Amino acid sequence: MKRTLLFLLTVLFTVNCFSQTDGKILSAQKKYQIFDTHSKSEAVFRSFVVPGWGQMYNKQQLKGYIFLCGQTMLIGSYFYFNQKYSDTYNNYSLEKDPTKTAKLFDDAESAKNRRNLIGYAIAGTWILGMVDAYVFGWDNTQILDLSLSIIDNQPTISISLSLN
Hints:
Structural class: alpha+beta
Number of domains: 2
Distance between the termini: 16 Å
Number of helices: 5
Largest sheet: 3 strands, antiparallel
């Protein structure tokens, strides 16, 4: 926003300086359009790369942080249960006592099932994040239309602003 304001002031100053003539009538018109280069596909791509980044790109900061923190916790849980499964299965295969092997096998299977369930949750929330980024995103829209007209050394400005 500061850039746009600085740009407008610079244009006005430049137009005012160069419009000074020796009593001649000067007539000119210049049109500027500023576009927001926002797109749904960019939001989806960002959500694909890092969960929550697409939501932040769509100016939904809280939702973006929720997706990012949620995915981080799910991925951490996945690695935790994967390690627990690996350790428990190694202890099961090394155990010679038949009374302990049944419990170690059940613990290993439980950790494996939790790991797999969390893996499905990771995939599901990742896809949900990409769909959310697409649904709540928007494509290129013109946000500012600026017209400068100089007639008889009198600059006039018309500005139209489009808010979504």
